[in-house]
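Structural prep section.
Before we set up the soaks we want a predicted structure of the protein with zinc ion in place, mainly to decide which crystallisation condition to try first. Input record follows.
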Amino acid sequence: MSNRYTKEQLYHIMSSIHSKDTKPELLVRRFLWNSGFRYRLNHKQLPGKPDIVLRRYKTCVFVNGCFWHGHEGCDSFRMPKTNTDFWQKKIIKNRQRDILVQRKLASMGWHTITIWECELKSQRRDETLRSLVYTLNHIFLENYSVKRYAVLGDAESSMVAEDVNEYC
Ligand SMILES: [Zn+2]
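Run finished without errors. Recording the tokens verbatim:
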């Protein structure tokens, strides 16, 4: 495998992909904030510097541009007719990187939610944001219930032990 980019070039490519304050990302942020969610931005210690980090929900939200991140089956994503090979390689690399980042985050106990730019177009925006809130609440309840089940489990096993004694 040949590496055609210098470190500097790669840095520029990556930073343009992860350019801050892109409009779709702002839209999601504003919505979350107005809905009462609190978050951190571009958390540097986490893999992939997630766009939005909701600690309370152990969730990272990525707002992905359909072209740069190669949104499969998307109307907004069309491979350019010139330099196709170049773009294809670049996009494949980004996609692989996204998968790696998600795996790393998952291994650290983080959930990831990906919102695609095309899902934020006016006709789909409400539905996307509504399902974002739904997913976050679901994750929160699940995280919470894991803790509760652990406590219940302990109480249950001691109750069983008592029952056994009674029947002996
Ligand atoms: Zn898309």
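Observations: DSSP finds four helices and four strands in the chain.
Flagged for discussion at group meeting.
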